[in-house]
């Protein structure tokens, strides 16, 4: 197989009437579907349109609301030889800056999208000199001709397939160059690791612009001839039950999510909802894309085994965009391993296993140990993982901490237009090694056990080193954000700064909206000091408490520690409370050159009067964001500190109140209470809204 397009051709011929994708617009009922033959035909139509104006090797931005159309468009780009560049719909000035950067960096020729997205973005795009020049190709499958003949060239396997822009920790996004060869080699590895085949049913709410959603779900389902059950990410955010409900309803076999999603299910799904689920079909439940916590996987297995979930189905994976997606995957035919390790040895860069535990171990037994690491599995087939000392580039022995290096055909071809950085990142060599193999440097620190299972312990550049001892920042963060009801879960960043010639620990922690006016910050300061002192024997240098949803994170939810450090050093946080008793070293201030990036912060009409709806909004906002001084119906939602997730949750609660379905992105076009309510009143009066079906929350 030379290129990815041959995969779709094969399954369209073999299973023309088989459903390739079922789409659940609200995460519940099926609203759209497409067969393998229709997917091929509609993709051909897109490719034909593209080739009338553009040539192979041109680059196209894919900007969509979640839908089947974005999948058709991706395959259309595959057939046309157009390099797809999937990105999220930009939100705010920072989002627009990132789009402008990508357009310039990737030399974008056109944007492919929906009419609704174009109308939301057109004004902002026209204000930007780089964006207003771009052509838009609007996808409307009603206009697709199903019997178009496409003269299909067989591309070289080295042909670029897509540019996957990484969120980056501090710098502007970088485009990872993924070829057809990279993707095919990777999909073969995933297929073997997940035991995927034509009978698989893949369920996903992950975004199309993230490698785990696009490569691990959308492309993977088609590569295996499987059926994909797809819903928008916001459907999960509004109600996590929808994810597991879809797995239960459609007998899903393969579904994945980051650790926070499993936590959300534990926190938000009620016992009543639990009784409606049958998760016995779920054979591969993978946890990836962010640090995996032992407590999460054990708690999830314990609770959801009540509705047929097999704990052995829960697996883990580790990877990154630079490796196309996965580097290692834990085998579901073996129980997931957890290692309790000696904390003192870890500080010296060594691993001493105190106790080998498993996913079905007793939670009380696991909690006895200070540091427990989760198995990330073996290397995907036909690839290699090496653990290397990042200083001298020598191989590390088993149970010795070093940097994770990866080689094989899945390793991408480098960063777009960044030759020097690509050479040092993608083509590293091991000292005193006889072969000429080159490796991808992940910058992640980990170790291998005697069975060559990989365990990740932190980022090389994020590692905190105090008095020569290593501390993984995610360990400190986990201890802190779980220690008090006022702290936002996964809303903590730990990093080190230099003061008086020594590394010192800084903590930045989000405070829940409901707790801002209740807490005593001085007591919380003492609390954080005690956590660091008692659990890690570390002294706190500085503490910053910030508003919920203000901690810099990537699009995949990873904490941007370098950016946090930059904001702290330059006093650019807007703190609720700040404690910095000593000065930073002046040299550090002079050398601080890290550039700032986007803070990922992505009934009837006579009964529903304007006054009632405005009153409902006022009560909802004041309840959700207690810190606001006053409510003004003409003030933008953003002025209340409401991000896109908060406005989506508000739309979800509002639709339950009024009894009509609402678009989660409604506040994009109606950015304040007054315009929003006037719009809703007009829509209700003219019968434009769809009545809300009964659903269990």
Q: Could you give a quick summary of the protein structure above?
A:
The protein has 23 helices and 28 strands. With 697 residues, the protein is α/β, with parallel strands linked by helices.
Tell me what you see in this structure.
The protein has 23 helices and 28 strands. The relative contact order is 0.08. The chain has a nine-stranded mixed beta sheet, with helices on both faces. 34% of the residues lie in helices and 22% in strands. It has 697 residues and is an alpha/beta fold. Strand 26 (502-511), helix 17 and strand 27 (540-547) form a beta-alpha-beta unit. It has four domains: 5-238, Rossmann fold, CATH 3.40.50; 337-457, Luciferase, Domain 3 (Luciferase, domain 3, Roll); 464-591, ANL, C-terminal domain (GMP Synthetase, Chain A, domain 3, 2-Layer Sandwich), CATH 3.30.300.30; 610-685, ACP-like (Non-ribosomal Peptide Synthetase Peptidyl Carrier Protein, Chain A, Orthogonal Bundle), CATH 1.10.1200.
| Count of discrete alpha- or pi-helical segments spanning 4 or more residues | 23
Approximate strand percentage: 15-25%
> Residue-averaged pLDDT, rounded?
88
Class inferred from helices and paired strands = alpha/beta
Instruction: Give the proportion of residues in helices.
Output: 25-40%
CATH topology category name of the largest domain? Rossmann fold
Strand order of the largest sheet: 2-1-10-9-11-12-13-14-18
Radius of gyration: 25 Å
Give the overall silhouette: globular
CATH architecture of the largest domain: 3-Layer(aba) Sandwich
**CA(first)-CA(last) distance:** 46 Å
Determine the CATH superfamily of the largest domain. ANL, N-terminal domain
